[in-house]
Specification:
This protein has about 240 residues and is an alpha/beta fold. The chain has eight helices and seven strands; from the N terminus they run E-H-E-H-E-H-E-H-E-H-E-H-E-H-H. It has one domain: NAD(P)-binding Rossmann-like Domain (Rossmann fold), CATH 3.40.50. The longest helix has 29 residues. Bound molecules: NADP nicotinamide-adenine-dinucleotide phosphate.
Length: about 240
C-alpha cells in the first residue's frame, strides 16, 4: 500500500486530492490547523486516513509532525504540499504580507526540505507542490503572494536539480501552477477562466500520476503563461 502526506488538506485542492489518493489505495496522513475539518475527512475515509493538526508557520512543529508521520507510515511515496495563504493587499498592510511570507516561504521551505531529505535517505519519493501561475510576474494588489509563489517555483526547480544527487532516478519533483480554481483562495475581482475544484483537482492528480515536472491548471492557462513570460513590464503595468 503506498503512503502519502498532504500538507494543507482541510479544504480546497488538498482536501479534494484526499479522495483521489484513497481511491487509488494510498494510506494518507492529512494536515492543517482546523482540527474539526481534519476529523470530518477522517470520518469519510476511516481506515485510510490519519490526521495531524499542524501549523506550517511553527517550524519546530513541522519537524515533529513530519517525524511522527514517518514513524507511523514508515516510508512515504508521495508528499503533496498544498498549504498556502494569499491576500489582496493594495495598502501593503504588514500583517498580511508577513502572514503570507511565514506560510508560503518559511513554512513551505521547511516542508520541502524535510521531504527532500527523507526521499534522499529512502532513495525514492515524489514531492508535488501547488505553486501558482502567480509565480511568473509581480502584481500590485498582492505583492507578497506573487513573490512567494516565484520563490516556491525557483526552490522547487532547485530541488529538481538536486535529484541528481540521488542515484536511481526515483525522486521526482512536480510543480503545479494553477490559474484560478474555485476555492476561497481565488483572489481578486478580475477572475476569469475559473476552473471548478473537481476539474482542477482531476488535472492535478493526472499530472502527479504522470510525474510531470511542471503543469498549468487548467490546460488553457498555458496560453496565459506564454504571454506573461514575454510581456514587457510597462505593458503589464498598463493593463493590470
Ligand atoms: N484557488 C486558486 O485559485 C489557486 C490558484 C493558484 C494557486 N493556488 C494554491 O493552491 C494551494 C491550495 O489552495 P486552495 O485554493 O485549495 O485554498 P484553501 O481552500 O484556502 O486551502 C488552503 C489550505 O492551506 C492550509 N493552510 C493555510 N495556512 C496554513 C498554515 N499556517 N499551516 C497549515 N496549513 C495551512 C489550510 O488549512 P488550515 O486553514 O486548516 O490550516 C488549507 O487546507 C495554495 O498554495 C494556493 O496558493 C490556489
Amino acid at each position: 500500500m503506498p503512503n502519502a502526506i498532504i500538507f494543507g488538506a482541510t479544504s480546497g485542492i488538498g482536501k479534494q486530492l484526499v479522495g483521489h489518493l484513497v481511491k487509488d489505495g494510498y494510506k494518507v496522513a492529512i494536515t492543517g490547523r482546523r482540527q474539526e475539518l481534519l476529523e470530518a475527512i477522517k470520518e469519510t475515509h476511516l481506515h485510510s486516513v490519519s490526521t495531524y493538526k499542524h501549523d506550517v508557520q511553527d517550524l519546530e512543529a513541522s519537524v515533529s509532525a513530519f517525524n511522527a508521520i514517518v514513524s507511523e507510515l514508515k516510508t512515504i511515496d508521495l508528499v503533496i504540499h498544498s498549504s498556502g495563504v494569499g491576500y489582496e493587499n493594495p495598502k501593503l498592510e504588514w500583517e498580511k504580507e508577513y502572514d503570507t511570507i511565514q506560510t508560503n516561504v518559511l513554512g513551505a521551505t521547511r516542508i520541502y526540505d524535510l521531504t527532500f531529505n527523507l526521499f534522499k535517505a529512502q532513495g525514492f519519493g515524489h514531492l508535488a507542490a501547488i505553486s501558482s501561475i502567480a509565480s511568473l510576474r509581480g502584481n500590485r494588489e498582492s505583492p507578497a503572494y506573487f513573490a512567494s509563489k516565484a520563490y516556491q517555483v525557483n526552490y522547487l526547480e532547485s530541488l529538481y536539480f538536486k535529484t541528481k544527487e540521488v542515484k536511481g532516478g526515483k525522486v521526482h519533483i512536480t510543480d503545479i501552477r494553477p490559474g484560478f480554481v474555485d476555492t476561497k483562495m481565488a483572489l481578486g475581482d478580475g477572475i476569469f477562466w475559473m476552473a471548478s475544484l473537481e476539474k482542477a483537482t482531476r488535472q492535478i492528480y493526472n499530472a502527479i500520476k504522470r510525474k510531470k515536472r511542471r503543469v498549468y491548471i487548467s490546460k488553457r492557462w498555458n496560453l496565459i503563461a506564454l504571454v506573461l513570460k514575454v510581456a514587457p513590464s510597462w505593458l503589464i503595468k498598463k493593463v493590470m
